[in-house]
Each structure stands twice: as structure tokens, then as C-alpha cells.
Specification:
With 353 residues, this protein is an alpha/beta fold. Helix content is 40%, strand content 17%. The protein has twelve helices and 16 strands. It binds 5-S-methyl-1-O-phosphono-5-thio-D-ribulose (MRU). The site of 5-S-methyl-1-O-phosphono-5-thio-D-ribulose has 18 residues, from α3 and β9. It catalyses: 5-(methylsulfanyl)-alpha-D-ribose 1-phosphate = 5-(methylsulfanyl)-D-ribulose 1-phosphate. It holds the Pfam family IF-2B. Belongs to the EIF-2B alpha/beta/delta subunits family. MtnA subfamily.
């Protein structure tokens, strides 16, 4: 497919995750929309904390940040022997791995670098360090390319009109452009996007704080709604398609995404609205057969008991799963950087690999 647009023609935003001069640079997503601030991190522990506390979040952005965390280790390690270096490498790998459990991109990126390092065990220390940094940068650059492709592919198959999205799978959630973000940006560029409905996405408000901010910044016409309004908007015939990102898509097409995605998928079916997920191959985990096997992160009770730092409920017990599983029967198609996958997913997802 011919790619009509370059990233800089689709967004005014800079990359969300970058690496230079032995530092990881991130747009601090906890501060948006009040403040746009790029922070710099210089230790593996700082990167792990940024992932845990969601200063960087969104499956591909987490993957790239973790890869850069390993680059940071490589360039800053003072190990004098290879054994010492490898011990430190595995420690860094474990610290980064134990941050968030659901998005498979984290493990995909860390394992890609670990595999490379192990294949080059016999090379010089200087060469191994160089390879780690180069691979981390490749992971980030490939993410941007994949998003650009998905944007063009997705914009061709989504119907023209009003689109609804949940959470943030935009530029902030990736290295640049977004998965959903790229599709919406290409649609907007081509005059195919009439209106974007943005779910606020309680409890962390990635829709209100991040999606509304970044799409508005790029001039995409949107309306923000509270999560419980989505069904009514669909019933009123004001949604032509729903598109969401994914944290992990498994072999049968079931997928994990931000809590509330499943609710939307069921409502979409009831209202005959096509329902898409869009994700790069790094989000597809063929080692799991069905969605029930995906580990679902549970986050702190404070996220539910508060809103914007204010207490909104008494000190009661809370259940706070960060993701849910959407069974593949609700999916119209999976848009990937290698093309569109339609049902039967079990058979067709395999063809991508
Ligand atoms: O908890 P988050 O904000 O990291 O969850 C993000 C999502 O669920 C996104 O939809 C998903 O990671 C896809 S991002 C391109």
C-alpha cells in the first residue's frame, strides 16, 4: 500500500518516548491536560516507576520505554567484565518486566533485546552495548512506521461519519501518531471523520485527559462524553463505527483493552455498529489461546475513590481491574500493520506470522 502521508503531516505532536544522550525522555502523561512537560530519566528504576505510575502508558509506549530502559542500563553500566554486565542486564530486565502485567508489548520489547544480547554473548562488551541501544531505537522507529501503515489501512476500511473511541490509543500511547490515533488522523485528513466521540474512561480518565487533549490539539472535531453516555449515543444513531486499541490480542482474536471496552463491544453488536481494534503485531500474543488466559492488572483503590485528586466516595472496598476482555465474536476486524484480519480470527491471525 502506498502511504500518502508522513507522520509530520498528520500530527503536530512530538514523539512521546525518546532516547538520547544516555537519557529517556517522556511526555509526563499524569500531568496532562494541565501541563505539557517532558521529563528525563537516567536510571532503570526511574523508567520502571514511570511505567508503574503511568507517567508513560499505552501498550506500545510502555514497550518502547522499557526498551530504552535497557539502553540506559547498557550505556551507563560500569561493569568491567561481561559476567558483571550480564548480571546487571538481567536485573534491569526483571525490574522493567515487573511493572505492568497486561500489555504484551512490554514483554515483547524486553524479550527481543534479551534474545539479541544472548545471541551476541561472545561479542565484545562495547559491541553488545551498541547493539542494545540500536535495537531499542529500532523498536521505537518501527512503532512509528507500523502506526503510519495502520493509519492508512484503517482509514480505508472504516465507514465515513462519526467514530467513537475509548481510553487513549493515540500518539501519547505509542511512540508517535497512535494506533487508533493514526487511523483517526488519516480519516480526518481525508475528510472522512465527521465527529469523534471520546469516552472519558474512568477511573484514570485517559479519554478525557489524554485523547480529548491530543485530538483537540490536532484539530479533530470531537465531543467528550462520560462513559455511561455511550449506549445512548449509539441508540440515537450517532455512531457509525467504534475503534479501540489493544493491550494484548490472543490467538482466537479475544483481546484485552482498557476497562469498559467489553461493554462498548456488546452495545455495538446490539446496535449493528462495526467494532474494530487496531494494533501492531507486537500486541499479538499467539502463545495464549483465549482471552481468559490474559493476566488482568488490578490497580489501587485510590483511583476509584478519587477523581482529579478529590475524594468522591467514602472509604469502602473497591474493585479496580484496569482492563477487560472482549471476546472475538464482537469484533468486526483487527487492523494491523500487516493488513486487516477478518473472522475466523483463529485461522486468519496465524497468517500474519
Ligand atoms: O492503562 P493504560 O492507559 O496503559 O491502557 C491503555 C489502553 O488500554 C490502550 O487502549 C492500549 O494500550 C492501546 S494503546 C495504542
Amino acid at each position: 500500500m502506498k502511504l500518502k502521508y508522513k507522520p509530520e503531516e498528520l500530527t503536530k505532536l512530538p514523539r512521546s518516548v525518546e532516547y538520547r544522550d544516555k537519557k529517556v525522555y517522556l511526555i509526563d502523561q499524569r500531568l496532562l491536560p494541565r501541563e505539557f512537560k517532558v521529563i528525563s530519566l537516567s536510571t532503570v528504576e526511574q523508567v520502571a516507576k514511570a511505567i508503574k505510575t503511568m507517567q508513560v502508558r499505552g501498550a506500545p509506549a510502555i514497550g518502547a520505554a522499557a526498551a530504552f530502559g535497557l539502553a540506559l542500563y547498557a550505556e551507563r553500566s560500569r561493569a568491567e567484565t561481561k559476567d558483571e554486565f550480564f548480571n546487571g542486564f538481567y536485573r534491569a530486565y526483571e525490574i522493567l518486566k515487573n511493572t505492568r502485567p497486561t500489555a504484551v508489548n512490554l514483554f515483547w520489547a524486553l524479550n527481543r533485546i534479551k534474545k539479541l544480547v544472548e545471541e551476541h554473548r561472545e561479542d565484545s562488551l562495547a559491541e553488545i552495548k551498541r547493539l542494545i541501544v540500536r535495537e531499542a531505537q529500532k523498536i521505537a522507529d518501527e512503532d512509528v512506521e507500523a502506526n503510519l501503515r495502520m493509519g492508512h489501512i484503517g482509514a480505508e476500511i472504516l465507514p465515513e461519519g462519526n467514530v467513537l473511541t475509548h481510553c487513549n490509543a493515540g500518539s501519547l500511547a505509542t511512540v508517535h501518531l497512535g494506533t487508533v490515533g493514526a487511523v483517526l488522523r488519516v480519516m480526518h485528513k481525508e475528510g472522512k471523520l465527521n465527529l469523534l466521540w471520546v469516552d472519558e474512561t474512568r477511573p484514570v480518565l485517559q479519554g478525557a485527559r489524554l485523547s480529548a487533549w491530543e485530538y483537540h490539539y490536532d484539530g479533530i472535531p470531537l465531543k467528550l462524553i462520560a462513559d455511561n453516555m455511550a449506549g445512548f449515543v449509539m441508540q440515537q444513531g450517532k455512531v457509525d463505527a467504534i475503534i479501540v486499541g489493544a493491550d494484548r490480542i490472543v490467538a482466537n482474536g479475544d483481546f484485552a483493552n482498557k476497562i469498559g471496552t467489553y461493554t462498548l463491544a456488546v452495545l455495538a453488536k446490539e446496535h449493528g455498529i462495526p467494532f474494530f481494534t487496531v494494533a501492531p503485531l507486537s500486541t499479538i500474543d499467539m502463545s495464549l489461546k483465549s482471552g481468559e488466559e490474559i493476566p488482568i492488572e488490578e490497580r489501587s483503590r485510590e483511583e476509584v475513590l478519587t477523581c482529579g485528586g478529590c475524594k468522591i466516595a467514602p472509604d469502602v472496598d473497591v474493585y479496580n481491574p484496569a482492563f477487560d476482555i472482549t471476546p472475538h465474536k464482537y469484533l468486526t476486524a483487527v487492523i494491523t500493520d500487516k493488513g486487516v484480519v477478518y473472522p475466523p480470527f483463529e485461522r486468519n491471525l496465524k497468517k500474519l506470522f
